[in-house]
């Protein structure tokens, strides 16, 4: 590392090391260059979306040592980079993360940001002010609950999770973004903590990996809590429960939005009477569905 002096030097070194080690991505980046850029910018507390102005900046010895240690840790431990940095971003919003939670990544955040779910005349929810209550199931780090609270400014938001460890991480993020108390976190299994309560919007990104698929997990995914991935033999145990229980927790015009990964055909075959509305994003197709309270009666 003695021959590395600028941010550009460390960026190039990181890309080379990551490619040589054949790392696996998917925790906020999908290639070695973006991973390296995230590492150097976040570690040096620079804007993560503006690399060019800093490329030729010479680094202090302490900064060199920090970057060198992070590059080596990413290669040797194979932990997702957000764990090493204790930081992940969704739609530009920063969240604290560690090994107690799955690294946040959800197409539902993209749907909210792009206005497909809410915010314009063509959205499923044209008037965001009409949403007064939101439930985020399997909230994990609390990221979707927080994004929902930002999007639906009149709403009281509640996040539930079975993992007490995950909720401890969520508390850190809620304290940072919504210290005034508009967002509550409750411990329990899916709807159990909100028995008898109805919501205008329920969002859910439950575990949806089949048990057998975990055998093929790369080290990066094995580093995450397994309970945040696995949901029965085919990956849909929790999704089935959400479908069967959601209607009793939705207001008259309430809406359920749920992410399921790539199991669209399986779900449609099992529930032929449900008129799934599939919501595509720039980076996904048929991985998120929406159903109204009335539509869920078809189950």
The biggest beta sheet reads: 7 strands, mixed
The count of helical stretches stands at 11
- Compute the gyration radius: what is it? 20 Å
- According to DSSP, the number of beta strands is 9
Indicate the low-confidence ranges by residue numbers.
Answer: none
Structural class, from secondary structure content? alpha/beta
Order of helices and strands: HHHHEEHEHEHEEHHEHEEH
Shape: globular
Distance between the termini: 61 Å
| Spatial arrangement of strands, main beta sheet | 5-4-3-6-7-9-8
Rounded average pLDDT? 95
How much helicity do the residues have? 25-40%
* Beta fraction: 15-25%
Secondary structure elements and pairings:
Blueprint: H1 7-21, H2 32-43, H3 61-77, H4 81-85, E1 88-90, E2 93-95, H5 107-113, E3 133-137, H6 143-151, E4 156-161, H7 164-177, E5 183-187, E6 199-204, H8 219-222, H9 237-245, E7 250-259, H10 264-270, E8 277-278, E9 288-292, H11 293-296
Parallel strand pairs: 3-4, 3-6, 4-5, 6-7
Antiparallel strand pairs: 1-2, 7-9, 8-9
Helix pairs in contact: 1-2, 1-3, 2-3, 5-6
Structure commentary:
The protein is of the alpha/beta class and 299 residues long. It is 34% helix and 15% strand. The protein has helices at 7-21, 32-43, 61-77, 81-85, 107-113, 143-151, 164-177, 219-222, 237-245, 264-270, 293-296, and strands at 88-90, 93-95, 133-137, 156-161, 183-187, 199-204, 250-259, 277-278, 288-292. Strands 5-4-3-6-7-9-8 form a seven-stranded mixed beta sheet. Helix 1 runs parallel beside helix 3, helix 2 packs across helix 3 and helix 5 runs parallel beside helix 6. It is globular and about 65 Å long. The termini are far apart.
